[in-house]
């Protein structure tokens, strides 16, 4: 069953044509990754799915419902959560306050809080600490946990490994796999670390200058010579 369908989407930033007729599909239970160079339009696509900026043309469908022109808060209520690039937690708020904001007055707050503390034991240790005083890895854990507190069916992750030490990156990717397998959350992952992303993902898309140029299973893309040359220099 298709959870998200992006069909012929064009997006502009002012006069800049950032996305050119994007077509992709994400099915329930999948981890799908989008790889590409800096400036290819990866983050723009996630933000367009969330309604800011709006698609100038084309349609975005979530579980059969057209969400192309819905306000962002309504898109979130339908079951899409976004952990943006750069984490963007509330630095002056504590871990607990950040998680409360993510929960949006959910009646399952206590249950979900325990789930997050099980997924991210470090957050339990730091629950009274201000977000801005934590390490980059801890802030990334908080950003993902805050998104999960809304009980999304689709989690959009934008560069979760950016700027993190290899050991923390490994932990973050293990958590993404666990969220997908045990929590049954569908994941759309944007990641510059193409090797890790394609190893983890069921399927992937390649974005070049606002165009989808290639798609396949994670393993198929890992084996493509052009992917190896462009994105997997260290592997």
TrEMBL record:
It comes from the Bacteria. Keywords: Amino-acid transport, ATP-binding, Nucleotide-binding, Transport. InterPro entries: AAA+_ATPase, ABC_branched_ATPase_LivF/BraG, ABC_transporter-like_ATP-bd, ABC_transporter-like_CS, BCAA_Transport_ATP-bd_LivF, P-loop_NTPase. Residues 4-234 form the ABC transporter domain. GO terms for molecular function: ATP binding; ATP hydrolysis activity; branched-chain amino acid transmembrane transporter activity. One of its GO terms (biological process) is L-amino acid transport. SUPFAM superfamilies: P-loop containing nucleoside triphosphate hydrolases. Pfam families: ABC_tran. The keyword Oxidoreductase does not apply. PANTHER family: HIGH-AFFINITY BRANCHED-CHAIN AMINO ACID TRANSPORT ATP-BINDING PROTEIN LIVF. Belongs to the ABC transporter superfamily. This is High-affinity branched-chain amino acid transport ATP-binding protein. It comes from Beggiatoa alba B18LD.
């Amino acid at each position: 069953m298709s959870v998200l369908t992006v069909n012929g989407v064009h997006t502009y930033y002012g006069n800049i044509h950032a996305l050119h007729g994007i077509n992709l599909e994400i099915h329930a239970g999948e981890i799908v990754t989008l790889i590409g160079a800096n400036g290819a339009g990866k983050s723009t696509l996630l933000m367009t799915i969330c309604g800011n900026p709006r698609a100038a043309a084309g349609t975005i469908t979530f579980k059969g419902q057209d969400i192309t022109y819905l306000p962002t808060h309504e898109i979130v209520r339908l079951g899409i959560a976004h952990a943006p690039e750069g984490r963007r937690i509330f630095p002056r708020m504590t871990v607990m306050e950040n998680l409360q904001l993510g929960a949006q007055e959910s009646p399952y707050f206590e249950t979900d809080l325990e789930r997050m503390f099980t997924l991210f034991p470090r957050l339990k240790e730091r629950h009274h600490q201000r977000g801005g005083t934590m390490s980059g890895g801890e802030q990334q854990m908080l950003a993902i946990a805050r998104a999960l507190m809304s009980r999304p069916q689709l989690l959009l992750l934008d560069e979760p490994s950016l700027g993190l030490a290899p050991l923390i990156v490994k932990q973050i990717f293990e958590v993404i796999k666990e969220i997908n397998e045990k929590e049954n959350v569908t994941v759309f992952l944007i990641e510059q670390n193409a090797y890790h992303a394609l190893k983890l993902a069921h399927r992937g898309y390649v974005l070049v200058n606002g165009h989808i140029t290639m798609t396949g299973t994670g393993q198929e893309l890992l084996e493509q010579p052009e992917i190896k040359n462009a994105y997997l220099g260290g592997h």
